[in-house]
Design goal:
mainly beta; 8-stranded antiparallel sheet; about 35% strand
Length: about 160
């Protein structure tokens, strides 16, 4: 939270400060795609941490996740929202995973790519000037009413200004 999502596209850099995320943790989390096991779609989640997991929802919106746990334990963080910093028009909306992916030009081609290293074009960069203490709130994740006891987990995090 509070760090930067950066996408280098040619000579242009799009930068946003991460303001909202959701966690999806393990094979028992019924809101996670991994709850159905390792599939072609979810194999990235079962891989090493630090790789992008991108998928399409509603046939029209891409969602950007970063794998977070060790190999063979599927867990990822969905980046739900960023505050635009540079490279985007003023007043552009990036408050939702679909809007964020549209404005950051994120699609399936990013899926499985490393979110680190000198060859990556999309990465998270530490914000060295962020305050030592951010006002981070917890809440239930959005749109997962079907997830049994996991629907009430406070695994959505957002910066409350």
């Amino acid at each position: 939270m509070g760090n930067f999502l950066i996408h280098q596209i040619g000579n242009k850099k799009i930068i946003g400060q991460i303001t909202e995320t959701e966690g999806y943790v393990g094979p028992n989390d019924l809101a996670s795609h991994a709850s159905k096991g390792k599939t072609k779609r979810t194999q990235v989640m079962f891989g090493n941490p630090g790789y992008w997991y991108v998928y399409l929802i509603y046939g029209m919106y891409y969602c950007l996740n970063i794998v977070t746990e060790h190999k063979n334990y599927p867990a990822a963080v969905l980046i739900r929202s960023v505050k635009p910093i540079s490279g985007l028009p003023d007043k552009i909306k990036t408050d939702g995973p679909g809007k964020l992916s549209r404005e950051f030009k994120i699609d399936k081609k990013i899926n499985g790519q490393a979110g680190f290293g000198h060859k990556t074009k999309l990465w998270i960069e530490i914000n060295k000037s962020k305050p030592a203490k951010l006002n981070i709130k917890k809440a239930p994740r959005i749109g997962i009413e079907y997830a049994g006891k996991y629907k009430d987990k406070l695994w959505r995090f957002y910066i409350d200004d």
